[in-house]
Amino acid sequence: MNIRLAKPGDKIVIANWKTTYKGIIEDRYLQTISVVRRQKMWKEAIEEGYETKCLYVVERDRVIIGFATGGSERTNNYRIDDELFAIYILEEFQGQGIGIKLFEKVATFLSKKGYNSILVWVLKDNPSYKFYESFQPTLVGTEQIEIGGKSYEEVAYGWKDIRCLLHVIQMKRADN
To answer: What sequence ranges are listed for the domain N-acetyltransferase (predicted)?
Structure first.
């Protein structure tokens, strides 16, 4: 397994988005997700560079099986510097500690860029909230968002000190 910053030409998979939200977001919307549109978004993100944000990919046998991305917090509502935008791992590779490693990569990158705090948004009905809760966050806020014409509740978990978060991550990695 190899974790690295994404580079031009990487093919970021979207199957993991569809499997993550199956049963949470309506299937009709999930079927509209376009590989071409998502690939264009990732290409643009990679081309912008890594001054204030990052996009890590994890490969196994030269195939990308997941990714994580982070950067400046988008709302400016919570007195938190940066945000973990996403961690997605193909379903068959989940539960193997890959998410912890990706979270650590993003948090370390952002810490080195001078950010002090971090948050992540999770759909309330997404079972992955347990993953984030295992890192001892603070509940920062909730919002209603619209996806495919339907309203969903999203929960923000935050860590006011990214160094403390990195310590918790390292302890969890040592336990695995």
So the answer is: 1-163
Q: Which residues pair with 89 in a beta bridge?
A: 66
| Structural domains in the chain, sorted by start | 2-175 (3.40.630.30)
Q: What are the pLDDT digits (tens) for 66-103?
A: 899 999 998 889 999 999 998 988 888 989 999 999 99
pTM for this one? 0.88
User: Which residue type does 73 have?
Assistant: E
Instruction: Report residue 129: phi and psi, to 5°.
Output: -55, -30
**CA distance linking residue 70 with residue 106, whole number of Å:** 6
- Enter the tokens of residue 40: 């264009």
Question: In terms of C-beta distances under 8 Å and separation of at least 24 residues, what long-range contacts does 73-77 make, across chains too?
Answer: 73/118, 73/119, 77/141
